[in-house]
Write a structure and sequence with these properties.
Length: 166
């Protein structure tokens, strides 16, 4: 009788199959992680564009407002409650800047932001945390041209800008 020389080969095949399946599972997990990071990055970029556009629209809606001096690294000057009162254009500008800066994220624990939340101008902090170290600036050019920019931290500095003209 002839013996088969394939003794032990099924164990080797099983180990190779387990190795291949394990590598496939690790690859799928890596793709899932990369997808999650990219989704988070896209969400942050979308939020930044929405917040920059919001401020640009506030500038256009209040042409008499004084929006000079709004820069990265500058906290909101204070909160003026314009929700239930008729505010002057400069007061409305102060309201707009405070609500915008507080929405961006970096200044969310500032005193002006706490006042805005208490007045109902902003949702609770846990519902609107903003961007990681999110901040914004308004740069003015000639003839009423402006650029609203939003910066935040996400594996390096990120920035979006929305140009406009009033």
């Amino acid at each position: 009788m002839m013996r088969s020389r394939a003794e032990g080969s099924s164990l080797t095949e099983l180990l190779v199959a387990i190795l291949v399946i394990g590598l496939g599972a690790l690859g799928a997990a890596g793709l899932q992680l990369a997808s999650s990071k990219n989704t988070r990055s896209a969400l942050e970029a979308t939020t930044a564009v929405i917040l920059a556009q919001d401020m640009a629209e506030r500038l256009l809606a209040n042409p008499g407002g004084a929006y000079a001096g709004v820069a990265d690294g500058t906290a909101p000057a204070g909160f003026v409650d314009c929700l239930g009162a008729n505010c002057t254009p400069p007061e409305l500008a102060s309201f707009d800047v405070a609500v915008w800066k507080c929405s961006l994220g970096r200044w969310r624990t500032d005193g002006a932001c706490r006042e805005a939340r208490a007045a109902g101008a902003l949702p609770p902090e846990e519902q609107q945390p903003g961007l990681p170290m999110g901040d914004g600036a308004i740069d003015w050019g000639a003839n009423g041209e402006f650029t609203v920019s939003v910066t935040w931290q996400n594996a390096g500095q990120r920035r979006v800008a929305v140009p406009g003209r009033r």
